[in-house]
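Task card 7
Instruction: Convert sequence to structure tokens.
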Amino acid sequence: IPFYQYSYQKRMVKYLESNQFLMCKKFRQGGFTTLVNVYLFWKCLFDQNIKTCSLFLMDREVISISYKFKQIINELPNWMKSKIEKITDREIKFTTNSKMRFLSSKEDPNSLRGNKINYAVFDECAFWGKGVTESWWASLYLMSTEKAFFMSTSSGKEGWFYNTYENAQDGNNKFKIFNCFYTEHPDYANQEWEEDTKNNLG
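Output:
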């Protein structure tokens, strides 16, 4: 099944493969959430015993991503569909003994207690509210999470995401930064669109 990627998305997959803790300050409608979760889906489909947890701001984002995966699975060839054991609004189980979980940031971080997570995704975590990202990260970090990806659009110059991103730029933690710009998306890479958007936003 074709999954076409722009050049910045191909670059991001390489970063996901090669870095343990990754941060990305993303632009809207760039396909970041879909890309990262499809990458995890691929890992679970073909690798044994992979456990992932993708965290979203609200329940509506959880429902949205699970619906998207139901559509994706419907388009898969039968030999790949046969690897899907079960799919609900909050998880996908695979015959490889791998599992993807989708949770809201509003849930209790202790709900994952006792579960080893290989890959954790924090989506739009700059908007989660004071102390929320810290609580989830502390819980997952102590569970020996192997890889963690934090991505968000900007939300001011304060909070865990901003501070950790700035520290990563200064080399003060183990996070690596994936840099990309909206002009790398072909739909936005023209001066007329940029000027129209700025004028309409005021």
